[in-house]
Amino acid sequence: MSHRIPDEVDVDRITGVSASEKSPSVPVDGRYVRKVGTPQKENLLDEFRSMFREMFFPDDPLRSFKGHPRSRKLLLGVEAVFPILRWGRQYTLSKFKNDLIAGITIASLCIPQDIAYAKLAHLPPQYGLYSSFVPPLIYAFMGSSRDIVIGPVTVVSLLLGTLLQNEIDPVKDPLEYRRLAFTATFFAGITQATLGCLRLGFLIDFLSHAATVGFMAGAAITIMLQQLRGFLGIKKFTTKTDIVSVMRSVFRAIHHGWNWQTIVIGACFLAFLLVAKYIGKKNKKFFWISALAPLTSVILATFFVFITRADKHGVQIVGDIKKGINPPSAHQLFLSGPYLGKGFRIGVVAAMIALTDAFAIGRAFAALKDYPIDGNREMVALGTMNIVGSLTSCYVATGSFSRSAVNFMAGCETTVSNIVMSIIVLLNLELITPLFKYIPNAILAAIIISAASGLIDVNAMILIWKIDKFDFIACMGAFFGVVFVSIEIGLLIAVSISFAKILLQVTRPRTALLGNIPATSVYRNVQQYPEATKVPGILIVRVDSSIYFSNSNYVKERILRWLADEEEQNHKKNLPRIQYLIIEMSPVIDIDTSGIHALEDLYRSLEKRDVKLALANPGPVVVSKLYASNYVDLIGQDKLFLTVANAVHACVPKLEDEEP
After folding, report:
1. How far apart are CA 251 and CA 272, in angstroms?
2. Residue 639 has what DSSP assignment?
3. For residue 658, is pLDDT > 70?
4. Rg (CA), the chain
5. Which of 105, 239, 424, 499 could form a disulfide with 410 if both were Cys (CB 3.0 to 4.6 A apart)?
6. β-strand 31-34 against 150-151: which pairing, if any?
């Protein structure tokens, strides 16, 4: 059986270029076949510099500084830290009008949400408002996303509230609790800024999309369960977050702890919020209805409670909210003692969740408007705002999806909308907070339940199930871990399964048998292309991964198993035995010493079976290491080929010569 060399290998002959003029080429059957090129060898320092640059500076952040005088570079450096100085020069009145409308709209949404989320974190209501005043101002000057809105969010508030109350009781010792909250916020900011400065943003990607979907859905269920206390008017409630403990606490209070007036208020306004949310989603033109619904609910519920004096009949209210802007809190941080380590641990966990949230939101809206997002710069901005926030009585702030969506639909142009929102929050803190005294806890619970319901993405779960069953396991593991155990365990499960998937893919890479697509010189996976035919006497295997110490032994054994299976089938069908093994190495982008040792062992095993080894299209890094280790001399220079077709063409005549 003969195989035609593809036309592209005859270029030298067609153009009249000799083999010596274009290297490397060798004659095969009277035709010149191009051989695998060897890259120019780099010295150790250049190789390390190249690897370091690709790992930490793949976007070449200093590109814009090249070719400019020192004064210009200084200006560009300041603009890199504060992007507002760059785009601010082109800022127009028409853009300000759009940002003003968007800022007013998101302020109407954030004020009731901030009060509710502060209670979720077991902090007084004003701390939620504080966190929507200072952090958004910092981000507006340093952030690169035009659409993201900064402030407290449900998941981070719940996470902080859960982790902090495990250390200090917020009811018995509120001052120490707040100090630990500020300390955790400080270390969250330090973590985020450090990751950005060291350009370690890729660490966020270790929490897979599937695990994040499951974690967010589980957190949403937990958040809604926690709100049953305020929704039903229960005074004594469990501090645990798992579904079993919460439901046990709810049903124990059914005869003496539920307040029917509170339930009526909560149920009516929850229905109103959900309907408004549905209208806003159904028709984007009416987004303002869902945006204004929380503030409208707060105003109406507060007015109702005030005129009926429902607080005298068991309806729990927010109570007095401290008036005035953020007081300094630098002196309250735990910078020594036992709570220093606890604050650091909680801060790191909160930082990673906050970054995951902010990155997902920023990238989503940047893709819609087609502008770039610098992930490392975003981390520095988020970290800086949380560091400053911790010094000004704020707790961990990040990007809010609901507010960012409203900001986007309201037509925001720049981060000025965050500044507008901050100013409105400031005015509320200075002028209006006494009016919030009669806000019923039930309406805050309804607002949180309405917001948390948006974190459950059933369609994403269904899609994950269809695409990747292992991803679905990660998703459900994180979900059930959060719902049935705790936020921390759910997060641990999410990260553990994500790492387990990476390890599984690295240690057990895919391999495939290749066959020839009829009437072409193309060789593809025979499972994907059933019409592809195997070449008699030749086994072609593709390795779909780099070969490292973690998988080298598996790759060698898997190739030998392919060989054993193929020989067994050939024996049953009375076909010629396998005499050549060709490894297609296009996907193998790197190999280490363990990988080369495995290839050497494979070569010796094949020698004992009287099977010759050939390699097709190894990449530049792999080729360099094969030559450096003298592996090419071991198998022979003539056993390295540019394509599988070339390798087959070189092997087929030898098969025919060896036939009796």
Report:
1. 26
2. G
3. no
4. 32
5. 105
6. unpaired
According to DSSP, the residues that pair with 540 across neighbouring strands are: 582
CA 504 to chain centre: 19
Residue 654, pLDDT score: 62
Closest CA to 603 of 649, 550, 563: 563
User: Cα(101)–Cα(79) distance, rounded to whole angstroms?
Assistant: 27
Residue 227 sits at φ, ψ, to 5 deg, of -80, -5
- The answer, yes or no, to whether the previous bond of 152 is cis (omega within 30 of 0) is no
Res. 340 pLDDT band, cuts 50 70 90: very high
Question: Per-residue pLDDT tens for 434-493?
Answer: 888 899 999 999 999 998 888 899 999 999 999 998 889 989 999 999 999 888 788 888
Query: What does the alpha-carbon distance between residue 486 and residue 623 come to, in Å, rounded to a whole number?
Result: 50
Using alpha carbons, select from 166, 527, 522, 510 the residue that is nearest to residue 349: 166
200 dihedral zone (left: phi>0; alpha: psi -120 to 50; beta)? alpha
Longest dimension (CA), the chain: 106
Q: How many CB atoms lie within 10 A of CB 341?
A: 11
Sign of CA dihedral 145, 147, 150, 153: negative
Residue indicated by tokens 């080729």:
623
Extract the runs of DSSP E, i.e. beta strands, from 523-653.
Answer: 523-525, 538-543, 580-584, 612-616, 640-641
How many CB atoms neighbour CB 508 within 10 A? Answer: 14
Of 310, 320, 153, whose CA–CA distance to 220 is shortest? Answer: 153
In angstroms, the CA 402 to CA 398 distance is 12
Token representation of residue 142? 């340093």
For residue 538, list its beta bridge partners.
Answer: 580
Query: What strands, in cross-sheet order, belong to the sheet with 538-543?
Result: 523-525, 511-516, 538-543, 580-584, 612-616, 640-641
> How does DSSP assign 327-376, residue by residue?
PP-GGGS--SSHHHHHHHHHHHHHHHHHHHHHHHHHHHHHHHHT----HH
Report the C-alpha gap between 350 and 152 in whole angstroms.
12
The conformation of residue 440, written as its DSSP 8-state character, comes to B
Which DSSP symbol is given to 641? E
Q: In this predicted model, what pLDDT tens digit does every residue of 52-69 receive, in sequence order?
A: 777 777 767 777 777 788
Using alpha carbons only, give the angle 632, 590, 201 rounded to the nearest 5 degrees.
Answer: 165
- Span 17-40, pLDDT tens digits: 333 334 455 555 555 556 777 777
Residue with tokens 């008036």: 323
